[in-house]
Amino acid sequence: TSLVGMLKWDHNDATTDFLLLSGLMPRQFAELLDDLAIVCVARKVDATADENADLCLQAQVRWFQPGTLDRPDVQSASDTAPTLTAGDSALGALTTPAKALLAGTLGANSNLTGFGTYVIDIGERLRAEEARIEAGSVLQIEFGPDDTPGTTDMDIEIAPPILCLRRHVGLYMSGNPGRNPRHD
Fold it and tell me: 123 near 25, Cβ under 8 Å?
């Protein structure tokens, strides 16, 4: 396409060729609802035939809850150092990545035919595995194809993905969130 910012997986790319999305889950994340998904506009492109009919986009998720400080706003070494309460000691991860099956290819073209909006529902996988990502957790998502796109010329093209999550309207403090002087 002629759009700026489009991404492409070539036919010989592997599952190790992924986008890495990382950051902190906002404190407003509604963790008890597990509404977390990647929304992505994508298509398969192939000059001859669909080389991979069961090709999916997938999201492998890893996370951990950091420790908390009793006084995270200490600014000077002349003051008493904050006390750290331990967080997670191991990385959480989905056993099975969240996936979305791609529609069949419509053949090679230079126009925008074949794009569709896909939802990779991470929350559904969290519920299925009885796992939970807490608000404030460090989050890492490996996003890409679940298989080599094709053997000769089939590719995947996507617009930049969006991470969607449900938030509380106010600050939600869960688990052991630590002290936040601006929200006490």
Answer: no
